[in-house]
Amino acid sequence: MSTLSKFRRARIDRLAEESAGGTSMLAGALRQMSRSPVAIAGAVIVAVFLVLAAFAPLLTPKDPYLRDPVLLAKLKLGSGIIPGAQPGYLLGSDENGRDFFSRLLIGSQQTLTVGVMATLIGLVLGMVIGGLAGALGGWVDSLLMRFTDIMLSIPGLLLAISIAAIASKPSQTTVIIAVAIVNVPVFARLLRGAMLSQRHSEHVLAAKALGVRRRAIVFRHMLPNSLAPVIVQATLTLATSILDAAALSFLGLGDPDLDRAEWGLMLGNAQRYFDIRPELGFYPALAIVVIALGFTLLGESMREALDPKNRR
């Protein structure tokens, strides 16, 4: 073997060893997020929220739906007295003599359920519409995208209010459906655009040249490589879903059961007692804002970390 051949082989071996130590796009994104204070702050807020929501029934010091005799003895709405914080009751009483801290904790579970279900339903429907438009193109793409354009032309909250108002009987289910429908066009256009960019990529053109079936190209090449921005958008949409669901409950278009502990509903009930105990509205509003902020910070950090232009 000549000296030149040995040199080339040694160079190839060295390059192979260097490439073996490389990292995937996901690993690189996680590494970048672990160094970002914004991503860490968002992840901490989201993690705390998920833990509180998951274990809320175990963490509540009192029964959130039971009128406590101690609080009822001090509750005098006619005289403008709602008991505040005291030993054994961290945040005092609500307007019905129930432990407000326990209701705030159990409300996180209801808020998470509505937000996650609305986001998942919108994600699935949006992916179906966007996937069909991006994979088939032609008149199917034009028809589906004009439908999404009509939905996008209406402000999201106004559309959700209109859908919820159509329901014969307001409920938590109508809130979930209304918020989910608002999210559909966002996911549809995002997935459709990502799949259209994949259609002209080198690996898709190579698969077509080899005679691979369209179904295999879509599900093995185009769709998997288009999911990253959709997953990031789902995190951001979860924040807006929580805000929209709280707004519908605040406006009285949610569950009519006033005993249900849900942050938007609690905020709506508290507006009658702002002059007596403004804390009844302050704490649910603060919880909604903080949770929405956490998901937004985490989603924006994921978007920046997965963007090839921002990777180092």
CATH superfamily of the domain at 50-55 and 107-310: MetI-like
At CATH's second level, what is the architecture of the domain at 50-55 and 107-310?
Orthogonal Bundle
> For the residues shown, what is the average pLDDT?
81
Helix run count: 14
**According to CATH, what is the class of the domain at 50-55 and 107-310?**
Mainly Alpha
Notes on the structure:
The chain is mainly α and 312 residues long. The chain has a domain at 50-55 and 107-310: MetI-like (MetI-like fold, Orthogonal Bundle). The chain contains 14 helices and no strands. The longest helix has 37 residues, at 100-136. The protein is elongated. The model is unreliable at 15-22 (pLDDT under 50).
Distinctive features:
single chain, 312 residues, mainly alpha, MetI-like fold, 14 helices, elongated
Write the layout of secondary structure elements.
Layout: H1 3-20, H2 25-34, H3 37-54, H4 56-59, H5 69-74, H6 100-136, H7 138-152, H8 156-166, H9 172-199, H10 202-209, H11 214-222, H12 227-250, H13 263-270, H14 279-306
